[in-house]
Amino acid sequence: MMKYQSQSVAKPYFIAAIGLFVGQILFGLVLGMQYVWGDFLFPEIPFNVARMVHTNLLIVWLLFGFMGAAYFLVPEEAERELQSPFLAWALFWIFLVAGALTVLGYLLVPYAQLADITMNDLLPTMGREFLEQPTVTKLGIVVVALGFLYNIGVTILAGRKTVVSLVLLTGLVGLAVFFLFAFYNPTNVVDDKYYWWWVVHLWVEGVWELILGAILAFVLIKVTGVDREVIEKWLYVIIAMTLITGIIGTGHHYYWIGTPEYWQWWGSIFSAMEPIPFFMMTVFAFNMVNRRRREHPNKVAVLWAMGTAVMAFLGAGVWGFLHTLAPINYYTHGSQITAAHGHMAFYGAYVMIVLTIISYAMPILRGKEAGDPRSQVLEMWSFWLMTVSMVFITLFLTGAGVLQTWLQRYTEDPQPFMVVQEKIEMFYWMRELAGAVFLIGLIVYVISFFVKGGERVKVAGTDTA
Amino acid sequence: MSEVFTKSMARNIYYGGSVFFFLLFLALTFDTSGEVPKRDNHEAIDEQVTLGKQVWEENNCIGCHTLLGEGAYFAPELGNVYKRFGNSTDAIVGFIKSRPVEGIPGRRSMPQFNLSDEQLEAVAAFLKYVSEIKTARDWPPNIQG
């Protein structure tokens, strides 16, 4: 079923992504528990360690997903075999071992000792949010990124160049380039923060959206059979709006960190427009599915694709807008509102797009066009369990955040942080409960890969949307 | 989208728009880098503050706390902790030093990091330096962070 033999290197990447995803969620539940039961696993796994594992696993498994997506779709778009499947395999093991060693380092030795062992003082880059990896791991990431970009870059440039593959390549090159700011760590906290966002913001609200758009466009071309010209035009418009709004939108992080006041205007105005490309993405996905020229047997991949478009708009667009205007952000900055937005945005945009391409590609990598009906039904259950529980996680965190903002910052008589945390504990319990449902959804998701058979019947709700 | 709006028009908006706004972003960054020294309290950065930032980073403080609103949301904001603790680095040192090794039953507690006196003084000096950065509207909104 694969058009090109070398596409098969995508498979280990997808399997690793799913495995690390499970680890990420287990640590998420540990964190949620620590919010309500303060000394849970203390002092063996303190909150900061569990959080580092939770967020770093997320980043690593999404990168595995992006790379797997590239290895799968680039040969098909370029109409030639991958330049070097061997390199892809080698980088897979390097990245997996480096990632595993880093996470084990977080868990097995105190962080200060890890910094010492890895000689952080030679080039200090550790201990900044999301960039906690030892410097040597960061260098490893650069090496893997370069090898990966060479491999798919040559494949694309020597083959058929499509808009999808060029946009994907642009996004991936941008990802690698902006990661280099992870090595810039001045003592001046304002400068440190200013350029830290060049990694974090210009990734998730910049170049990653190009990757997201390209993968979504690829899957929609395949499952709807709509003319490529139409889809590529949409893709251009969406990513144009992404960068037009998102680059200056970085300003919404420059309100309160010692940067000039004018960022409150630039940041508010441009980031208020950041939902536009996400809304267009939703309209795009529904439009293409409505205009489909074929009934693709992989119904669940279509469900994931449309789910991505909707949830990315809600999580990144709506929940981002909620607290992006400077006068509001003055009160909400760094509260549970931020956490609420972070959860649904990452899930809706990046988790779901990776699960979309896995859902589409995995059956093909396993030698058939689509999963068996029973497997698909189970995967749809996992879709709804994870997505609905993520909506509730977000709502409970939003509730917690509104109260926190009110009690700690908005009233005449602001309460201390920990006093407020105890008052909003109920929301954290409910969030943990929703998190447990998410884990059930994820378990169902994993099981769906091992289920066979079933009648090929129409599944209600999937072919009407 | 209609045929009046062609794919090459869309492509041009993408290229033109992203190049233009990236250049605008660079221009704003250039201006910011000129403005920041007026408010970033860089005069306070000495060897001790530099060591303090290293202690701050190598113990992953950002994994629980926020610093000027950025970080994790599990423990209090530290961008103004120096002021909250009565403009006292000694109070900060005393707090970090006194954390129980086994934590506090049922409650959140900061780990005992076993820092040396030099490291303790340094991280407190670092937090003092951060609290004196001139943020817009004097963020955080109040002493509670």
Report on this model:
The complex is a heterodimer of chains A (465) and B (145). With 465 residues, chain A is an all-alpha fold. Chain A has a domain at 5-168 and 292-448: Cytochrome c oxidase-like, subunit I domain (Cytochrome C Oxidase, Chain A, Up-down Bundle), CATH 1.20.210. Chain A has 16 helices and no strands. The mean pLDDT of chain A is 97. With 145 residues, chain B is mainly alpha-helical. The longest helix of chain B has 29 residues, at 7-35. Chain B is elongated. The relative contact order of chain B is 0.16. The model of chain B has no long low-confidence stretch (mean pLDDT 97). Chains A and B meet through helix 2, helix 4, helix 7, helix 8 and helix 9 of A and helix 1, helix 2, strand 1 and strand 2 of B.
Q: What overall geometry of chain B do the principal axes of the alpha carbons give? A: elongated
Report the end-to-end length of chain B measured between terminal Cα atoms: 49 Å
Q: Label the overall shape of chain A.
A: globular
Kindly report the spatial arrangement of strands forming the biggest sheet of chain B.
1-2
Structural class of chain A: mainly alpha
Number of discrete domains of chain B? 2
Low-pLDDT regions of chain B:
none
Radius of gyration of chain A: 22 Å
Total count of strands of chain B: 2
- Rg of chain B computed from alpha carbons, rounded to a whole number of angstroms: 22 Å
For the sheet with most strands of chain A, the description reads: none
Distance between the termini of chain A: 27 Å
